[in-house]
């Protein structure tokens, strides 16, 4: 039986135990020879590693588990790297959200100025990780990247490391499809979705359950209830108040623009004034996470170290871990499974620039994704995508060139920002906040 060496980059993430559980659920089909956790924050990874060790002991006690901060040890001879970096941790996410809100602009970790700031922090750590893979990993390595903001990361890697064996994915469409499955009373894996856009910026055009088109039925439901299932079934990660509000907001978008079903992140671009009005500028999503999932997992570790007792079940995420493992298995075994992933456009969306990194369906093979051609899209969606894609392209160029001018252009062009004056205020404040992380902008 073929076995694999796999490293989780960002091993100190609170999602790591859930991803490991998803991996080990597939141990009969996707057998790991060794699992490594790699992080530059040794203490955080040590604590999360305690939980991961418990998962391994329960589900695959013979598996070798290695925790390391050394790149050579982490990447040597690996088959897969699962990347889930959060550069700057939640301290910087909080600033990404709160600085824009001071100026009545959407404060969100991947959308608007916060997403641009996060992208500028993440580009070169991703380059470094790819270089480690090129130096130490097997020539056939695959990076499956979850690191946000995935659109900017994907765009930057396409320019800076075009030969890297990296596949950029996002679990938000899959999480929405999980809710769709609950609404339509079917299995998520039986849904076939047609979709186009950029990451966190797209639309579902058709939803089939096996061979039955159920798009109109689903549209009618979403116009009334958003993406909230009838019995409010939803996994823990997307089950708190802010996520329920997000899923509910989809109904307004579905009513105003009924052609397609939106990705939930479209609320930040199309309902931005209301999002800001509803926001607590002093207590954002970053605070919710720090007081919620982050606190729960580290409190559980502290209790375990004192008492030797721990309940692991709250840390087993569902669709997040399942999706990344499904994609890796399709890469490993040439399964040609159909997933929504990020790829260079190259004509897939006919009237969008070829070098855009689009999120569309693709068949995942051992040689990478084979995109499904979407064809031509209507003017409204084309225009929005081109504006957002240009914004992301400018911020990548700002990072590469160290250009303040292009960073200001990117912030000004973003649909969430009302004027160049506001863009400049936010950018200048974010430069000060990110001096430890950003390339120097001149």
Please describe the structure with a list of short key phrases separated by commas or semicolons.
442 residues, alpha/beta, six-stranded parallel sheet, four-stranded antiparallel sheet, 16 helices, globular
Brief summary of the model shown:
With 442 residues, the protein is an alpha/beta fold.
Note the total helix count: 16
Unreliable segments (pLDDT under 50, ≥5 consecutive)?
none
Strand order of the largest sheet: 3-2-1-4-5-6
Oligomeric state of the chains present here? single chain
Structure, described:
The chain is an alpha/beta fold and 442 residues long. The protein is 50% helix and 17% strand. It is built from 16 helices and 13 strands. The protein has helices spanning 16-25, 42-59, 71-75, 89-102, 112-136, 150-160, 172-184, 215-225, 241-256, 266-270, 272-278, 285-307, 319-333, 379-401, 404-413, 420-433; strands at residues 3-9, 31-38, 64-68, 80-83, 142-145, 166-168, 191-198, 201-209, 212-213, 261-262, 337-344, 357-365, 368-371. A six-stranded parallel sheet has the order 3-2-1-4-5-6, sandwiched between helices. Strands 7, 8, 9 and 10 form a four-stranded antiparallel sheet that branches. Helix 1 (16-25) links the parallel strand 1 (3-9) and strand 2. It is globular. It starts with a strand and ends in a 9-residue tail after the last helix.
């Amino acid at each position: 039986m073929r076995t694999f060496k796999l490293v989780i980059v960002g091993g100190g993430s609170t999602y790591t135990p859930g991803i490991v559980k998803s991996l080990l659920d597939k141990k009969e089909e996707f057998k790991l020879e060794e699992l490594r956790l790699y992080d530059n924050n040794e203490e955080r990874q040590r604590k999360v590693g305690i939980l991961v060790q418990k998962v391994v002991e329960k589900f695959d006690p013979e598996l070798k588990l290695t925790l390391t901060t050394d790149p050579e040890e982490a990447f040597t001879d690996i088959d897969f790297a699962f990347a889930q970096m959060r550069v700057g941790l939640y301290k910087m996410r909080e600033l990404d959200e709160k600085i824009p809100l001071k100026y009545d602009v959407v404060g969100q970790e991947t959308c608007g100025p916060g997403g641009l700031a996060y992208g500028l922090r993440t580009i070169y750590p991703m380059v470094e990780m790819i270089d480690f893979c090129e130096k130490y990993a097997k020539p056939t390595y695959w990076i499956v990247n979850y690191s946000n903001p995935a659109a900017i990361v994907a765009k930057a890697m396409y320019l800076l490391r075009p030969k890297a064996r990296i596949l950029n994915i996002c679990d938000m469409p899959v999480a929405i499809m999980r809710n769709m499955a609950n609404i339509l009373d079917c299995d998520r894996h039986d849904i076939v979705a047609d979709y186009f856009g950029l990451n966190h910026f797209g639309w579902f055009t058709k939803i089939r359950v096996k061979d039955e088109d159920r798009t109109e039925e689903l549209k009618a439901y979403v116009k009334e209830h958003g993406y909230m299932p009838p019995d409010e079934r939803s996994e823990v990660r997307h089950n708190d108040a802010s996520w329920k509000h997000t899923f509910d907001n989809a109904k307004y978008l579905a009513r105003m623009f009924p052609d397609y079903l939106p990705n939930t992140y479209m609320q930040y671009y199309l309902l931005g004034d209301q999002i800001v009005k509803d926001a607590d500028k002093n207590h954002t999503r970053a605070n919710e996470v720090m007081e919620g999932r982050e606190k729960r997992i580290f409190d559980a570790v502290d209790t375990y170290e004192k008492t030797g007792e721990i309940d692991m079940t709250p840390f087993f995420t569902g669709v997040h871990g399942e999706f990344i493992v499904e994609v890796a298995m399709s890469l490993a075994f040439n399964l040609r499974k159909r997933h929504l992933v990020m790829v260079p456009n190259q004509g897939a969306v006919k009237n969008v620039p070829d070098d855009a990194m689009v999120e569309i369906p693709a068949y995942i093979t051992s040689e990478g994704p084979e995109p499904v051609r979407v064809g031509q899209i209507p003017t409204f969606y084309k225009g929005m995508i081109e504006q957002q894609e240009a914004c992301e392209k400018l911020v990548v160029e700002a990072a590469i060139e160290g250009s303040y001018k292009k960073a200001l252009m990117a912030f000004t062009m973003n649909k969430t920002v009302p004027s160049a004056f506001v863009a400049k205020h936010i950018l200048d404040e974010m430069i000060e906040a990110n001096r430890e992380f950003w390339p120097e902008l001149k």
